[in-house]
Amino acid sequence: MELTYLDSNSWLLDFNGCRILLDPWLVGPLVFGNSPWLFKGTRPIERPIPGDIDVILLSQGLPDHAHPPTLEQLGRSLPVVGSAGAAKVARGLGYEEVVALSQRQIYTWGDRLQIQAFPGSPIGPTTVENAYVISDLQAGTSLYYEPHGNHSSLLKDLPPIDVAIAPLVNLELPLVGPFIKGKESALELVQWIKPQYILPTAAGGDVNFEGLLVSILKASGTPEEFQDCLRERQLQTDVINPVPWTATTLSLARSMESKSS
Length: 261
Description:
By secondary structure, the chain is an alpha/beta fold. It has a single domain, classed as 4-Layer Sandwich (Metallo-beta-lactamase, Chain A). It has six helices and 20 strands. Strands 8-7-6-3-2-1-20 form a seven-stranded mixed β-sheet, covered by helices on one side. It has a seven-stranded mixed β-sheet with strand order 9-10-11-12-13-16-19. It has a three-stranded antiparallel β-sheet with strand order 4-5-17. The longest helix is centred in the last third of the chain and has 11 residues, at 183-193. It is globular and about 45 Å long. It comes from Phormidium yuhuli AB48.
């Protein structure tokens, strides 16, 4: 399994040649609600959009996960799998094959990949976006992804998952509290799914942020502190802090047969 962190929430996942572009924000600014004074993200260095993509996977319909300017640059024949909100964005941009996954539903790409949706982050009072477990059906390996630290207790019923991508730090707003929950929720996640590796997402990369929200955001925790926390509890998961835009190859010890035995 090869993972490349593309800054912010964006990842390129390579499962033995099957390539998933996950929550891509790769071109142009990141703005919510046409309000750059409130929040604006920019990239100091222009980066190429990865090629040879097989599937686009979107966890949420918000611009930092389903980023319209980036999606406009990709081929409309690529299959898009996402939450209901993300699927609506993709359809609006003219994508031809869009699959909206409800929680516990499964999408299968040929005989190579299985993507199962789980409850993820609540957005507003009625909407819950998606987390995913991605399984390589040939190698027998698996990966879990949720970008805001909202992990469903349904995961406790699954066999161990090899790799997790989740926040390891908290980002908090005054009077609101953490909207990205890393520290405690990531520890609980590790205890539930027992991954060999966990990689941080959501709070890093080569990006610049400005605006009112950024000026009052408070971050707490580091990947190094989280690794120390795991060791104190004698948990064997290794924290990998990826170098943005540099592929990380993971050698995984388990197989699907050993998980089911």
